[in-house]
Queue: 3 jobs
Job 1
Amino acid sequence: MIIESALDLIFRDLFYRLPAFAGSHDVFLKLEGFNITGSIKIKTAIELVEDLERQGVARPHETVLVESSSGNLGLALSLVCAIKGYQFICVTDPNANRSAIRGIELYGGKVIVVEERDPANGYLGSRLKKINEILQSDSNAVWLNQYANLANKNAHARQTGDEIAREFDRVDWIFVGTGTTGTLAGVSERLRQKFPGIKVVAVEPVGSVTFGGEPAKRNIPGIGTSVRPKLADLAKPDRIVEVSEAKTVAACLSFVRDYHLLVGGSTGTVLAAVQQLAREFRSGDTIVAISADLGEKYLDTIYDPIWVDHVIRSEDTEDPKGVGLEKTFALVAAD
C-alpha cells in the first residue's frame, strides 16, 4: 500500500469480532482508532473543511478555521488544516487529553482552554461563548460548527454508515456513542436504508443533556454534551442508554483484560451499553458497535488508578468506596 497523503490513512473495514461479549452473543466492534490522528473524527474533519471549500467560504492561507473540541476533532482538524494551508484555532477545556492538545500544537494549531463551567456544569457553553468572541474579533475567522453542520452527518452516512452496510448482509443492532450526534445521525440514516428493522441505540454518559438527561459534571471527554446540538433533531434513536463514568472505566479495564486492546472512553461507554441490553438480543442477531478511538490518549486518566480514585470514585454514587473499580484494576494488574 502506497499513499500520497496522510489523509489516505483511513481504515474502513476493521471490525473486531468479540465472541460471546454480550451473554451468548458475538459483537462486532468497528475500530476507528487506527485512522490517522487516532479516531473517527478524521472523516468529520475532512468533510467539514471540504464542504466550506465547495461553498467558496474557506480560502487557504487566508481563512482562520475555528472549532470547539474536547480533543479528537481538534486533532483531526489541525492535521487537515496543516495539509490544506489553513490557520486553525481549537477551543477546548480542562477535560481534554494532554496528548491531543500537544498534537494539535505540533500540527500548527492554536489551542485555547476555557476554565469556566457553563450553567449545565459542563464546558461546551463556555467554549461556544469563546468562539463567538473570536468570530467578532477576526473577520477572517470561520466557525465549522460541528454541532449543526449537515456535513458532519453526511460524512458518516456516506462513509461510516456505508462501510458497515457493505460489510454485513444483516444488522439488527447498532450502538453509537453520542456527542455532536453527527455520527449517530449519519450512520442511522444510511443503515435504516439497508436494514429497515435495525434498532439504533444512542449511548450517553450520565450527565449529558442531549436526549433529555439531567445535567451533571462529566470528566471523560469525547462523549456527551452540556448543550443539546442541533444535529440531535436529525438523530432519532430507538433506544437511549445512559452509562455512568464508573461503568465506563470498568468496561475499558475489562476489555483490556479480556480482549487485549486499549480502547477510549467513548468506546468503554458503548461497550457497557451493549452489555446492559444483552438480554434483549435474540438468537441470530447481528450486533455492531462503533469504537471511536483507542486508549493511548487516556493512559493518564481512565487507565490511571490515581486519577480514577480522585476523579471518578469520589463521584460514584453507586459504589462510593470504589470497591468494584479497585478489584478491576487489580485483575488487570494481575494479568
Note: The mean pLDDT is 93.
Job 2
Amino acid sequence: MTSTEPAGYMPGFGNDFETEALPGALPQGMNSPQKCAYGLYAEQLSGTAFTAPRGQNERTWCYRIRPSVKHVGRFAPTPVPYWRSAPDIDPGRVSLGQYRWDPLPMGDAPLTWITGMRTMTTAGDVNTQVGMASHIYLVTESMQDEYFTSADSELLVVPQEGRLRFVTELGVIDIAPREIAILPRGLVYRVELVEGPARGFVCENYGQKFDLPYRGPIGANCLANPRDFKTPVAWFEDRDAPSRVVMKWCGQFHATEIDHSPLDVVAWHGNYAPCKYDLSTFSPVGAILFDHPDPSIFTVLTAPSGTPGTANIDFVLFRERWMVAEDTFRPPWYHKNIMSELMGNIHGAYDAKPEGFVPGGMSLHNMMLPHGPDETAFEAASNADLKPEKLDNTMSFMFETRFPQHLTHFAAHEAPMQSDYIDCWAGLEKKFDGTPGVK
C-alpha cells in the first residue's frame, strides 16, 4: 500500500479533488481521452442523476486497469441473515416503546464486515430510496479476497472499539473510535481489521446523500467544516487472484466470482468519494446566558428529504462542551417530537442518562413517544449550583429520522435489551403543590 493516510477535502461539499498513484495517469484538460496513459480505461462513477443541479451534481472520473464491467460475472444469491433492509415489519414485533440495549458481545465466531453486521432498526423503504437502517458491526477478522459494494445506500460508520481499514477503489482509509467514515453508494471495497476486535455503529442511508447542514444565523463558522473531511489519495492493486464480490441490491445480497482484485483505480478526480472525519474537530455551539436550544444545533451531517427542514436522517453529536446557562435545566428536557431518535454511546457518560447507557450501548425513542432525563439526572440538574461547568468524558450520537424505526427480529429477541429501561422514570414524583412561583 502506498498510503493509508487520507488527504484533501471531502468531495460533494463544494470541493473537487484529484489524485494519481502513477505520474501522468490523470488526464489534464479532458475526462475521457481517446487513449489514456498506461493503457488505462476511463470510467465515470455517478452518485447523482446526470442532470442534477450543478451544486448538487456528484461524479468522479476513474482511470483504471480494467473497466468495472470486468469486475462482475453472473450473480447468485448469498445469505446474509442478520443484515436487514426496510421494510422489515412484523405485526407481532412491538416497536412502540422506549428501548435500550447493552453493548453487543463479540462472541467466539469469526466475523467479517459482512457477516458481523447486525441490523437493529429499519425505516422507510429501500426500494423507493427513502429512509434508513441502523446497524451494529462486530468484526474479528479481515476480509480475504472478498469485496463489498452496496447499490442501496451510503454507509455512515461510527467506530466504538477497535480500528478498521477500508481499502477502496479510490484509496485507503483507516478509522478509529471518535472518527467517522462515509462510504458512498456503488463504491467497491474490502474491510480489514487493524486492531480488534472491532465494534461500532452504522447508519445506512437509502435517501439523499449526507451533506453539511445549513448554519442559518450561526453564520460561516462552527459545527463541522468541509476542510476537516478527508478523502484518500489514489492507490491501486494490480493483482490476479480468485476473488469474490458481494453486492447489496434492493435489500438482497448477491455474489459473483472474478479472477482479480477490483481495486484497480490508478488515478481519479471528482467530488464523489469516501471520506473520514475526526469528531474532535466538531465545534459545538450553545446558549451562553439562559434557556435550552434544540439539539439540532449539534447536527454534524444531514440527509435531506423532500420536506424542507425535515431530514431523512440527521447525524447529531453530543461531545465535550461547556455548560454556562443561568437559571436553566441544562440536560435535554422532557419532550416528544415527530422524529425517531436512535442514540449510541461512543465513550463516557451521557448527561441525561448517567446510569445504564454505557459505551457501546444504544437506545431508541420512536416518534411521538415521550422521553428525557432519568430520575437521577433530573434531581441533580434541578439542584445543581449553576456555575460554568465543563461537560467532559462524553461522546454520544443520534441517528434521527422523520420515519418510524421498526425493530428487527434480532433487536427484539436476540440483542441484549434492557427489560427494565422504562423503570428509570418510575421514581419521578409529583411535585405540584398549587403554590405560585418556581422558587
Note: Residues 21 and 234 are 5 Å apart (CA to CA).
Job 3
Amino acid sequence: MPANEGQLAYHAGFRNHVVTEALPHALPKGQNSPQRCPYGLYAEQLSGTAFTAPRRQNLRSWLYRIRPSVTQSAYRELSLGCIATTPFDSFVADPNQMRWDPLPLPSAPTDFVEGLYTLCANGNASKQIGIGVHLYACNRNMEKRFLYNADGELLIVPQQTALLIRTELGVLEVSPGEIVVVPRGIKFQVQIGESDTAARGYICENYGQPFELPELGPIGANGLANSRDFLSPCAYFEDLQGEFELLAKFAGKLWACRLDHSPLDVVAWHGNYAPYKYDLSLFNTVNTVSFDHCDPSIFTVLTSASATPGTANCDFVIFPPRWMVAENTFRPPWFHRNIMSEYMGLIYGVYDAKAKGFVPGGSSLHNCMSPHGPDAETFKKASSIELEPQYQGNTLAFMFESRYVFRPTETALKAEFRQRDYVDVWRGLKSNFNPNTR
C-alpha cells in the first residue's frame, strides 16, 4: 500500500522543478540513473520536448517506478467511436456561425474515453500543429483502464461534476471552475465518484507547443494567472497486479494493449514535466477603468505558441466575474471579424453577449473572418441602459482561440443538438441610420 494512500497533495508553481517521493529516500542521490535504484525501482525518463530544446523550454521528468513502461503486450487497434483527429480534409471548413446545445448525458454506462465526442479540429496532429476540440459526457469510472495521448496534451475543462484524475505522477481533483492539463504521453485514469453521477465538460487537445503562461508586457510583473497558483501532484503509487488495459491515442487512432499491473506505480519522481491544475477563480482580471474595451487577449490564461511570434497555435481565454465600469461605452463584446478562429464554451451562468440560446455546456464556433457579436436583444438593451458600475457576476465562459481554421466533424454538423437557426439571433439588427439626425 502506498505511503500516501487516499491523499491529495500538491506542489505549487507553474512548471517548477518538483522533487517528490511517496517512500522516504526513493529518489537516488546525486544522479538520475544509478546502477541500482532504491527499493529495486526502475529509472525512466519522460521527455516532453526534444533533448536539445533551450534550457528554459526543456521539459522532462525522471520517474522511479516498480516496473518499466515497456512491460506490456503488443497494441491492437480499437474503434474510434466519435473521436476524430486532423488532418481530415474530407470535412469542409465552413464560414457559417455555428452553435450547439450541451452534449446529452449518456443513459448507458459510459466511461471518460467512451464518452469523448470530437466537435471540431484544425492543423495536423502528426506535424504537431493545431488543436482538437472535444466534449466528454460520462457516468462511470475508468476501472482497470488507463489512457495516454501521444498526439497532444489535454486541457480538460469540467462543466458538470468534479473529476478525479489519477496519473502516474500523482492524483488531482478538479471541479467545475477549475482546469487540469495532462501533458502528452502521461498515463492517467478518470473517475467521477458514485455510479449514479454524470460528468460533462470540454477538452482542448493541443497538438502544438505545450501551453505556457503568456508574457505580461505593459501589464507588468503582476496580473492574469499567477505561477504560484498552479498545482502539480505529489508522488503517489499503487502496486497492483491483475488484468489491466492501457489505451494509446497515437497518430489519430486509438490502440490498446494488455498490462498485468497498474501503470500508476511511480514511487518517486523529479522534474518539470507533470500534470497540473488551476483554479480559474484565482485569475487576476485586468480591464478598462475609463472607456472602450481592451482586446480579449487580456483574459488569456495559457497560450501555445506557433511559428509566428504573437500569433498563437492556441490561446485559452476565460471571461470570469468582473466589474464593468467603462463610461460612454457599449459594454458587451463588440461586433467583430477576426483573423483567429474562436471556439467558445460556457461553464456556468450567463454570457453577457447572448440573451438566450447559449447555455452552460453549450458551444459556439466562429471561424476566421466570420462576423459575430451580440445578438439583437442584447444590442438593444446595452445601447439604451443607464451606465453605472455593474458587477458582471455568475458567469464563467471560455474560448479556445487558434490561428488555424476549425473543421467541424460530420457528426457535429449532423448532431441533433446543433442549433441550425443560430444565425437568426442577428436577424433583428435593423438599420437605424438617419443622415439628418446625429
Note: The helical segments are 376-384, 410-414.
